[in-house]
Write a structure and sequence with these properties.
- 22% of the residues lie in helices and 42% in strands.
- By secondary structure, the chain is an alpha+beta fold.
- The chain has one domain.
Length: 72
C-alpha cells in the first residue's frame, strides 16, 4: 500500500485526512472515529474516499485519505 516510501530514505510518508460526519449521536461519532483510527493504523484504507458508517450500517459521512511522500 505505502511500501514505495520505505525504499527511499529521503522521503517521509505523510497522510492528509479529511473527515465529514453528520450524526446526532455523539457516542456513534466517537465510535466511528475510533474505528477509522484503527483502520488507518492497520493500513486497511488506501488513498481515496471511503464511506463512514455507524455500527448499525447507516452511512453518516465520508473520509478522504491521501497518502503521499515528502522530501525530508
Amino acid at each position: 500500500m505505502h511500501d514505495d516510501f520505505d525504499d527511499n530514505p529521503d522521503l517521509e510518508e505523510r497522510l492528509k485526512c479529511d473527515v465529514k460526519i453528520d450524526c446526532s449521536n455523539s457516542k456513534a461519532v466517537a465510535w466511528v472515529l475510533r474505528s477509522l483510527a484503527d483502520q488507518i493504523e492497520q493500513e486497511n484504507l488506501d488513498t481515496g474516499f471511503h464511506d463512514v458508517k455507524v455500527p448499525n450500517g447507516d452511512k453518516v459521512g465520508e473520509v478522504y485519505l491521501d497518502y503521499y511522500a515528502q522530501s525530508i
